[in-house]
Design goal:
Mean pLDDT: 87
Low-confidence stretches: 1-14
Radius of gyration: 21 Å
Shape: elongated
Distance between the termini: 23 Å
Number of helices: 7
Order of helices and strands: EHHEHEEHEEEHEHEEEEH
Strand content: 15-25%
CATH architecture of the largest domain: 3-Layer(aba) Sandwich
Largest sheet: 7 strands, parallel
Strand order of the largest sheet: 6-9-8-7-11-10-12
Number of domains: 2
């Protein structure tokens, strides 16, 4: 992604809002975004990290509700009144990763309900509960050409601040749909899943269109679910790979086989 060119940066805007009290209505609204319940209620989340925020300014300016900072930093004209300056103490409450760089408040798009239509290309079925792992999987999915991720009932929210950060902001470029529980996938066809009892990944012929089911953390794939199972060869005394690594290896293999 492109970085902001200095020629597009401007001096501090006089119209910028300034917040000095935790009793401020805007502060109270945004501080709710530190919890999943607040993210769902407000339809907003926090994107932290200078590179992620700069990329959002370039590629997704319409998705930015505000930019929080502690200093009079110039932003592109397109933001106008969206720059909010906080005291250092108030800003630190939002700075989850101690980046000390501006934080973007981003609007969360509405997710459609998955209609269980045949997949187009490779689509992911994800029950991953850890937001950091989910973000990392989305980043790998984007890198290997995946267009759609179906969030199963067990899944974390992809716009959780941790997910946004580990995805490097690519959650903004992914199509998400909301699906059922992993336990309710028994009638779905064209599903490929990683399993230690599957065939060797190196021998598997990837179909052009399929679902790749990520195992539920700690529980894996339901035994009642009928899928094409594949395994990643490892040394004998290693039980398994984590969901992020295993999924990334499978995505890479699928991508290469269909080139």
């Amino acid at each position: 992604m492109k970085k902001l060119n200095n020629s597009y940066k401007i001096r501090y805007l006089l119209s910028m809002k300034e917040i000095t009290s935790s009793e401020n209505a805007i502060f109270k609204k945004y501080i709710k975004l530190l919890k999943s319940s607040g993210i769902k209620k407000e339809g907003l989340s926090l994107a932290c990290g200078s590179k992620i925020v700069e990329d959002l300014l370039v590629h997704h300016p319409q998705s930015i509700d505000a930019v929080l900072s502690t200093s009079k930093i110039g932003f592109p004209n397109l933001l106008k009144n969206k720059h909010i300056q906080l005291t250092t103490e108030l800003f630190q409450e939002f700075d989850l990763f101690a980046t000390k760089s501006p934080i973007a408040v981003v609007k969360i798009p509405e997710f459609k309900t998955w209609e269980k239509k045949p997949p187009v290309g490779l689509e992911l079925l994800v029950p991953v509960q850890d937001p950091s792992n989910l973000g990392a999987i989305v980043r790998s999915a984007y890198a290997f050409g995946v267009k759609k991720v179906v969030l199963l009932k067990e899944s974390a929210h992809p716009f959780h601040p941790k997910s946004i950060r580990t995805s490097s902001g690519y959650v903004m470029d992914m199509q998400f749909e909301v699906g059922p529980s992993i336990q309710e996938l028994s009638e779905i066809s064209n599903v490929v899943a990683l399993d230690m009892n599957g065939i060797d990944l190196n021998e598997f012929k990837w179909p052009k269109n399929c679902y790749l089911l990520v195992g539920e953390e700690g529980l894996g794939i339901p035994k009642t679910l009928k899928t094409q199972k594949i395994k990643i060869q490892m040394i004998e005394n290693c039980e398994s790979l984590n969901a992020v690594v295993a999924t990334s290896i499978a995505l890479s293999a699928s991508y290469q086989s269909n080139q």
